[in-house]
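To the wet lab folks,

You asked to see what we're planning to order before we commit. Fair enough. Below is the target structure as tokens, and below that is the sequence we designed to fit it. If anything looks off to you, flag it before the synthesis order goes out.
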């Protein structure tokens, strides 16, 4: 018997309010394809920069300190609070930059 495959949690389950905001902002920017893709983002790893104002996270595996390479573009968004920007590679969101915002709260139920 093989061990079940581990999948990182969906962003919509961990940070549903943030995900809703991202989708709305992407739609406003005319980034319809990214808005649809955002609904299935996974929280692969949180940023480890140590800056208190940063709550960014990876949505795809990527080596620390390495550039994203060809096909990369940054999609800055205009939220009401703080800053949000997406790193996109070949039409896939690979990183969500979350800066200068209230702490994100994990919406998943805690242990009983």
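Sequence we intend to order:
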């Amino acid at each position: 018997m093989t061990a079940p495959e581990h999948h990182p949690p969906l962003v919509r389950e961990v940070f549903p309010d943030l995900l809703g905001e991202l989708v709305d902002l992407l739609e406003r920017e005319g980034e319809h394809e990214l808005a649809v893709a955002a609904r299935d983002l996974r929280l692969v790893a949180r940023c480890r920069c140590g800056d208190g104002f940063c709550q960014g996270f990876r949505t795809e595996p990527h080596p620390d300190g390495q550039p994203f390479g060809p096909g990369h573009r940054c999609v800055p968004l205009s939220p009401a609070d703080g800053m949000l920007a997406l790193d996109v590679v070949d039409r896939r969101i690979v990183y969500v930059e979350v800066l200068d915002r209230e702490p994100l709260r994990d919406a998943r139920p805690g242990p009983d």
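Structural context that might help your review: The CA atoms of residues 51 and 99 lie 10 Å apart. The first helix runs from residue 11 to 14.

Thanks,
Computational group
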